Automatic annotation (TrEMBL):
Top-level taxon: Bacteria
Name recorded for this polypeptide: Cytokinin riboside 5'-monophosphate phosphoribohydrolase
Sorted UniProt keywords: Cytokinin biosynthesis, Hydrolase
UniProt family annotation: Belongs to the LOG family.
GO cellular component, one term: cytosol
EC number: 3.2.2.n1
Biological processes, Gene Ontology terms: cytokinin biosynthetic process
InterPro entries: LOG, LOG_fam
Record bears the keyword Hydrolase: yes
């Protein structure tokens, strides 16, 4: 199968989490991206999983594209050793720009910001505003509760099957890329009276 993913946007926590395995996962994932010829697009930060995956890509010879807000840059959150850095005025611009620069979107474990970012990318699929694949990296079952919530949304009639299926959960980079490289965005939601 031909590889379509050349740049991957990674949404993830600016904190390391309590389990050191999360940082190890980010480091390993970044190194695996470079082995597959995939560049990183991410939020531009130096801390937590963000910094770990960015440093792993850069340390292994890959390109890292960071997009950070003025506010976070002024607070000293920016990783300076990037291939390219864009400083943007707000979080909405940051998310939109990251999605524009990338061929696919993956969410690592993280907090409210990560959840909000991947939720927006997924919800835009229903509107027809995001034609790019969205994968939630379910490392150590971190996102199992979200799988259950999406199932419940579907079961209760709030989320159509094609949109639920358009968000892939995986803990394996080969599976993740196979999904992304064969992805076809569903037709946007149609409303009826």
């Amino acid at each position: 199968m031909k590889q379509m993913i050349k740049r991957l946007a990674v949404f993830c926590g600016a904190k390391p989490g309590n389990d050191p395995d999360f940082m190890n996962m980010a480091q390993s994932f970044g190194a695996d991206m470079v082995k597959r010829g995939i560049d990183l697009v991410y939020g531009g930060g130096q801390f937590g999983l963000m910094g770990e995956v960015a440093n792993a890509v850069a340390d292994n010879g890959g390109k890292v594209y960071g997009v950070i807000t003025d506010q976070l840059d002024e607070r000293g959150a920016t990783l300076t050793s990037l291939h390219r850095l864009e400083v943007v005025p707000d979080m909405d611009t940051r998310k939109r720009r990251m999605m524009e620069l990338a061929d696919g979107i993956v969410a690592f474990p993280g907090g409210l910001g990560t959840l909000e970012e991947v939720s927006e990318a997924a919800s835009w699929i229903t509107l027809g505003n995001n034609k790019k694949p969205v994968v939630i990296y379910n490392y150590k079952g971190f996102y199992d509760p979200l799988i259950n919530l999406l199932d419940e949304m579907h079961n209760q009639g709030f989320l159509e099957e094609q949109f639920k299926a358009a968000v892939h959960f995986s803990d394996n980079i080969d599976d993740l890329l196979q999904f992304m490289n064969s992805y076809h965005a569903p037709h946007h939601r149609v409303y009826h009276n």
